[in-house]
Amino acid sequence: MANQATAVAYAALLLAGSKTPLTVENVEKLTKKAGVNVPSQLATQFVRAFEGKDIISLLSVGGGSSSAPAAQPAQAAAKPTEAPKAAEKPKDPEPEEDVDMGGLFD
Q1: pLDDT beyond 70 at 88
Q2: Does residue 100 sit in helix, strand or coil?
């Protein structure tokens, strides 16, 4: 089932990338060419879930999670950095109270 769902997802991405309409027939055609037998119910549910939505824009929302740091101008790099401020002293944990569990763990 996981391979079938993955195949349907990849088919939807391929269709969206090629500006081909996301239809059950197109999804089934692509998955069949990939050699994955997908039940038409799965393809139908996937198509209905994304009906009227732009899959590419759904994937590109947020965009701020790249692993590389943003490039900084040379002027900003020349400024000396301030030393990090000393962190607040952590509070001592409060002592735990002895709770009667009704003899459950006696």
Answers
A1: no
A2: coil
